[in-house]
């Protein structure tokens, strides 16, 4: 069965410091991978996604993520964190509907990011 | 509309009462998804619609939960005889076509509190 693990429940970084949020997935085929961000009281906003091709993907707000098949990982990075990045971040895995899945995403439990001034 | 709209944004209900949650997807989006987010947990998939049809209802937590969609537009998630464990944020998402590749747009959710 598909699953997503985000090992860090809560991370605190200083403003201007670099950030890496970890995500590991379990899936039998090549997955479709996503990172979403959720600000308090808001829905989820897509940061970036990986379907195929270049394993380093760029997203919005200066975020990037790297797909490493050998490690079953899709870690999210940002070189310099801004105070406005404080939010909860969710990694998700899905499959093409054409492969018989429901077309739904499986989410990790999230990592809450706090930013120190 | 421009985005996915959910109502109400907050709902407090007494245990045992029925509640109805509404989702207005983006116009033209044929697929619609419901998720539940309990405190400190990830998103739990509940059900999806392709058009007005929900082919698989196995993700619904119990038979107290039901969902429907009409006119390939508005969807309602109904919880009967609410229990305290139903307290959560219920999120709706829509996509142009069914499948993760078409991209989901999420609403802001309905926060349900059962007292």
General description of the model:
- The complex is a heterodimer of chains A (117) and B (115).
- Chain A has 117 residues and is mostly beta strands.
- Chain A is built from no helices and twelve strands.
- Chain A is globular.
- The mean pLDDT of chain A is 89.
- The model of chain B has no long low-confidence stretch (mean pLDDT 92).
- In chain B, the strands form two sheets. In chain B, strands 2, 4, 5, 8, 9 and 10 form a six-stranded mixed sheet that branches. In chain B, strands 1-3-7-6 form a four-stranded antiparallel sheet, with no helix packed on it.
- Chain B has no helices and ten strands.
- In chain B, strand 6 and strand 7 form a beta hairpin.
- Chain B is mostly beta strands and 115 residues long.
- The radius of gyration of chain B is 13 Å and the shape is globular.
- At the A-B interface, strand 5, strand 6, strand 10 and strand 11 of A face strand 4, strand 5 and strand 8 of B.
Key terms for this structure?
heterodimer; A: 117 residues; mainly beta; six-stranded mixed beta sheet; four-stranded antiparallel beta sheet; 0% helix; 50% strand; globular; B: 115 residues; 46% strand
Gist of the model:
The complex is a heterodimer of chains A (117) and B (115). By secondary structure, chain A is mainly β.
């Amino acid at each position: 069965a598909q699953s997503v693990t985000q090992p860090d429940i809560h991370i605190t970084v200083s403003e201007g410091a670099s950030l890496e949020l970890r995500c590991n997935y379990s899936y039998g085929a090549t997955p479709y991978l996503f990172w979403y961000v959720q600000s308090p009281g808001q829905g989820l906003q897509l940061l970036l996604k990986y379907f195929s091709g270049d394993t380093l993907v760029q997203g919005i707000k200066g975020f990037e993520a790297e797909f490493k098949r050998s490690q079953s990982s899709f870690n999210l990075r940002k070189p310099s964190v801004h105070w406005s990045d404080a939010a909860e971040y969710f990694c998700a895995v899905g499959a093409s509907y054409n492969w018989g899945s429901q077309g739904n995403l499986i989410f990790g439990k999230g990592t809450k990011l706090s930013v120190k001034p | 509309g421009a985005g996915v709209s959910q109502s109400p944004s907050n709902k407090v209900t007494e245990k045992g009462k029925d509640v109805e949650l509404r989702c207005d997807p983006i116009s033209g989006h044929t697929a619609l998804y419901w998720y539940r987010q309990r405190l400190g947990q990830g998103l739990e998939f509940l059900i999806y619609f392709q058009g007005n049809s929900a082919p698989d209802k196995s993700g619904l937590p119990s038979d107290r939960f039901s969902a429907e969609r009409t006119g390939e537009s508005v969807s309602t998630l109904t919880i009967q005889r609410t229990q305290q464990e139903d307290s959560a944020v219920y999120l709706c998402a829509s996509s142009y076509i069914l499948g993760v590749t078409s991209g989901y747009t999420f609403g802001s959710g309905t926060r349900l509190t059962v007292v």
